[in-house]
Amino acid sequence: QVQLVESGGGLVQAxxxxxxxxxxxxxxxSSYTMGWFRQAPGKEREFVAAIKWSESFTFYGDSVKGRFTxxxxxxxxxxxxxxxxxxxxxxxxxxxxxxxxxxxxxxxxDYWGQGTQVTVSS
Length: 122
Known about the structure:
Blueprint: E1 3-7, E2 10-13, E3 18-25, E4 33-39, E5 46-51, E6 58-60, E7 68-73, E8 78-83, E9 92-99, E10 111-112, E11 116-121
Parallel strand pairs: 2-11
Antiparallel strand pairs: 1-3, 3-8, 4-5, 4-9, 5-6, 7-8, 9-10, 9-11
């Protein structure tokens, strides 16, 4: 079993920054691919970023590439999403996810957190 808890969301002005954290517990963390997804009202869940066991393997959705950075610390069982140059269209609930299976990084995740709200005002 894996438990994921997100934190760090909030209200920011356009152009500002936030850092989201995801704390994992319950079992071994280091082998998982970790991802961030988001869902805005009335829209489908969207892939944001992912990181494999190596920091060399990171992936980003087109809408956030160059603005967001994903990182992890396996010793702390924690993954972060640094969000810079935020835009109103980034407003969504952000979810942390863990994938215990090798392969795809944009889908197929096994465990999900409850989400944290990010609101970007104009």
